[in-house]
User: Which sequence fits this backbone?
């Protein structure tokens, strides 16, 4: 009888533990995130997912890749997502269209441009003057990569529309293939294509647009003002998890980071992942914390203004909320 009682008590204890586990799972708050593209450039985000940092904050993140800034912002504005990961310039464009519910930047993920200048020929002592009179395969007009590209060229005394032959009519997804097929003597490429081209001998990285342009809020997390007002705790937990991931990326060797994000890049070789992560870490493209700084915001607008795409400058305090980042960093 005594043995039966003990067994009964054990069964009750086990059921309580299991029910507690299921309850904990049910308590996870679902957050829908739309990312502008799938990129190693966003490594901290995938680390937060793979290492369970969001779950530890009580969040279940549903990630969708929306492929393009316009589509990402449309998804957010139409309530197809709660949070968007996209270039901060999109929040400015929405605001300038007279939105009654502006999109607010609350956490920054990357702080440099993510593109590199790739030369078809190997150049030992590269100078930006080497671009003069050459054929340059650039990015889409009006897009952030192209605006940064032109900003850097002008910084080095090069008029992108007079001093070289600038090609801008190739679709973003076809730029690598166009260069590989013989178009252009120089090309502006994202990773991992720049590293892959180096490995295959198709091209050679000679400069980084991210290093040359300086720190900008190149990619940030944002949400509609109304959503943030109603879900402050969710935004805080999300930012806490992100900050932990940002720190983890810099604390761990690139091999470990590559292992952590590999499930999100099944078609990319491990060695390529490691090299790309190394390159982005070396130039501090991954922001080590989620705080969007005012100087970064102003430089972003300088670049957009220089490209002729900015109707009017928007004050930092209007579209940036640093409360959640500051709290996450102070814990």
Assistant:
């Amino acid at each position: 009888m005594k043995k039966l009682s003990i067994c009964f008590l054990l069964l009750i204890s086990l059921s309580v533990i299991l029910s507690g586990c299921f309850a904990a799972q049910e308590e996870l708050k679902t957050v829908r995130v739309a990312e502008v593209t799938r990129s190693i450039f966003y490594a901290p985000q995938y680390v937060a997912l793979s290492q369970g940092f969001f779950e530890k904050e009580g969040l279940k993140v549903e990630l969708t890749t929306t492929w393009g800034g316009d589509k990402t912002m449309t998804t957010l504005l139409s309530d197809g997502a709660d949070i968007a990961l996209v270039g901060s310039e999109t929040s400015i464009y929405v605001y300038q269209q007279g939105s009654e519910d502006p999109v607010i930047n609350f956490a920054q993920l990357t702080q440099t441009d993510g593109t590199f200048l790739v030369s078809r020929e190997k150049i030992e002592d590269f100078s930006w003057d080497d671009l003069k009179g050459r054929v340059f395969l650039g990015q889409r007009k009006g897009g952030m990569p192209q605006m940064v590209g032109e900003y850097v060229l002008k910084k080095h005394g090069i008029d992108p529309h007079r001093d070289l032959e600038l090609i801008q009519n190739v679709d973003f997804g076809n730029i690598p293939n166009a260069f590989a097929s013989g178009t252009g003597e120089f090309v502006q490429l994202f990773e991992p294509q720049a590293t892959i081209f180096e490995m295959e001998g198709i091209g050679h990285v000679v400069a980084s647009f991210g290093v040359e342009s300086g720190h900008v809020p190149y990619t940030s997390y944002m949400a509609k003002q109304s959503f943030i007002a109603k879900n402050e705790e969710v935004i805080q937990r999300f930012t806490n998890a992100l900050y932990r991931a940002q720190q983890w990326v810099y604390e761990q060797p690139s091999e470990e980071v590559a292992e952590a994000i590999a499930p999100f890049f099944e078609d990319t070789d491990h060695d390529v992942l490691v090299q790309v992560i190394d390159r982005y870490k070396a130039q501090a493209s991954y922001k080590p914390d989620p705080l969007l700084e005012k100087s970064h915001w102003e430089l972003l607008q300088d670049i957009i203004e220089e490209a002729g795409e900015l109707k009017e400058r928007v004050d930092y305090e209007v579209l940036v909320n640093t409360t959640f980042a500051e709290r996450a960093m102070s814990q």
Observations:
- The longest helix spans residues 2-26.
